[in-house]
Amino acid sequence: MRILLVEDDRDVAGFVLRGLREAGHVVEHADNGRDGLFMAASETFDAVILDRLLPGGIDGLRLLETLRGQQNTVPVLFLSALADVDERVRGLKAGGDDYLTKPFAFSELLARVEALARRGKTEGPVTRLTVADLELDLLSRQVKRAGQKIDLQPREFRLLEYLMRHAGQVVTRTMLLEGVWDYHFDPQTNVIDVHVSRLRQKVDKPFPTPLIHTVRNAGYMLRAEAV
Amino acid sequence: MTAATTAIDRAAAADPPRPPHAAAGGARRGTHPSWLRSASFRFALVYALLLALSASALCVFLWWATAGLLDRQTEAAIRADAQGLSERWTEGGLPALLLTIDDRLAQNVDDDAIYLVVGPSMRRLAGNLPIWPSFVTEANVPYPLDVTRAGVPSRARVERFDLPGDFHLLVGRDARVRAQLRGLLTDALLWSLIVVAAMASAGALLVRSLFRRTLANVSDTAAAIAGGDFTRRVRLSGRGDEFDQLADTINEMLDRIGRLMEGVRAVSNAIAHDLRTPITRARTRLEDATLHAATEAELRCAIDRATADLDGIVAVFQALLRIAEIEAGSRRAAFARVDLSPVLVDLADLYAAAAEERGLALLTEYPTQPGALAVYGDRGMVQQALANLIDNAIKFSPPGGTVTLAAHAQPERVDMLVIDHGPGIPPADRGRATERFFRGETARHTPGAGLGLALVQAVAQLHGGTLLLEDAGPGLRAVLSLPRHGAQATVPV
């Protein structure tokens, strides 16, 4: 994927650039708001990672507002040290699609950027999700694996739906908390792990090949092949 | 620091009319001399002006009333005299009048009476004036008249009365004595004005020094506190007057600031102390790894663990910032009606599995019909507060126990209860359990930073509610009470 990184801190930028390139993405970098706006407006990207506080007269919010003013709908992830709820709300209101506060784990950034870039591509409403022999019908709310019906609690259904919508991508615990439970804080207890392990009991345990994989230091991934 | 500040102060004092940072303000202020800008001077001036003005008004009134009275008395005497004479005329004609005038002149002990009767040709018929003064042309109007009596010049008041047959009568009184009296009075009042001016000035000085002394009490205290002596308070006079009330308010404010500063100091000490431990751990791991790691796997493992330590430190910071954000109260603008039932259902759903994993049963006990538990607040905050309480309950419960999540609507509030049967909090620690970084003896060996209850407390305070920590015999019963959202309630109370 083609990703634009607008970040003025050289260490952070270098770390993110290396990581994203290692993950197989093509990354462009701008270290000030003016260049960032120019690149974002003149080229096509799958996602933009945007710092809030930038030198060069144009900060992240202004950059994004200008971009959205030009009907540019590229998915944008804010990467900012401004962590207050108010700041987060401001970022999302300006047209941001996701907001990650510094300091951050690279795995979290990667997972979120990939999820964003993918989301920009899905066309039209989906009624049916399929990964290998696992099928999830969003209309009848039924789950089948290898033709066999699996009974899921409503919350387990939403958890599986989230994993299947992001099939082949790493999904972090924070993303699950936000996406499935709509919680924007981290509980101290490993609540997410327990829920995923319960889902595994039903979706993976009775079958020869597991689909839900644990990605070390990152989160989970649902896909046919082993990680 | 102190020396630098003093130097700046001196520089500012040396050039007061044009401070470099206030060009616009300087121009405005420059139109008044500095002594006019002093509030004490203005108060004194107002006092002096008011006193002088009222005293002058009193003098003028006194003068007018007394002098006027004298004039009116003279006029009344003249009229009465003329009345008597005109009656004599009516009774006995001209001869009787002339006779009466001669009689009166003879009997006039004070020697102040003036009479003149003239005939049709203005010829003198009787009286003690040689000729008719030419300017006395109108009847019944008092005229001033200069006369010389016994060689002494004097001023008299005369009035003309017309008699039938073109005879004219002039009656007057010598006003010398009265004029002397009036002069005396005028002098006395003018002197008293001078005394008033002197007293106004002295009073103004007194007012000014009183004003200054009262303010000095407050401003000395403020200056001492600004200089770093926070133990100083404004002295009370003990009279319970407005200045005492002001001093009381200022002292209360200072006490509150003192408590807040104490709190900040305690928190920064706690941060320094509590973060030192994980930072030391991370540092030790990294240093140990660079010195002793034999394989790359060992090195990576050490780095991973140090990163995890750093994540823990970041989490503590985030919790602290979140508490500070809540306490600052800026989120109150985003308050809305929150129906707690779905919040509780979601939380129970999220935590039931985790509790079960640890061999605990999560019991729930709350009404689920919509609107039964409505509060006015921030949904995310209430979620987080409850999650913290449940986290704690699960963390401290022995396996095989139960954790209860309950909620009831009270007439004025909604009580949310999280009950566990772990070790609880000893009564002595309960008051401090909501302080940041407080870790009870029983919590010593459980992971955590001691910020969970502090956050719950902050959320409760922001919502105008309370957090009560009670004994669940054994265990902890945490009651988070938030004010109920009024009209929408559908549950009978």
UniProtKB/TrEMBL annotation, chain A:
Residues 126-224 bind DNA. Keywords: DNA-binding, Phosphoprotein, Transcription, Transcription regulation, Two-component regulatory system. PROSITE patterns: OMPR_PHOB, RESPONSE_REGULATORY. SUPFAM superfamilies: CheY-like. PANTHER family: REGULATOR OF RPOS, TWO-COMPONENT RESPONSE REGULATOR. GO terms for biological process: regulation of DNA-templated transcription. The keyword DNA-binding applies. Residues 126-224 form the OmpR/PhoB-type domain. GO terms for cellular component: cytosol; protein-DNA complex. It comes from the Bacteria. InterPro entries: CheY-like_superfamily (IPR011006), OmpR/PhoB-type_DNA-bd (IPR001867), Sig_transdc_resp-reg_receiver (IPR001789), WalR-like (IPR039420), WH-like_DNA-bd_sf (IPR036388). The modification 4-aspartylphosphate is found at residue 51. SMART domains: REC, Trans_reg_C. Residues 2-117 form the Response regulatory domain. This is Two component transcriptional regulator. GO terms for molecular function: phosphorelay response regulator activity; transcription cis-regulatory region binding. Transmembrane segments: none annotated.
From TrEMBL, chain B:
The lineage of its organism: Bacteria, Pseudomonadati, Pseudomonadota, Alphaproteobacteria, Acetobacterales. PANTHER family: HISTIDINE KINASE, SENSOR HISTIDINE KINASE YKOH. Residues 270-486 form the Histidine kinase domain. Residues 1-31 are annotated as: Disordered. The chain crosses the membrane at residues 44-65, 188-207. GO terms for cellular component: plasma membrane. It is found in: Membrane. The keyword Kinase applies. This is histidine kinase. SUPFAM superfamilies: ATPase domain of HSP90 chaperone/DNA topoisomerase II/histidine kinase, HAMP domain-like, Homodimeric domain of signal transducing histidine kinase. It comes from Acidisphaera rubrifaciens HS-AP3. Keywords: Kinase, Membrane, Phosphoprotein, Transferase, Transmembrane, Transmembrane helix, Two-component regulatory system.
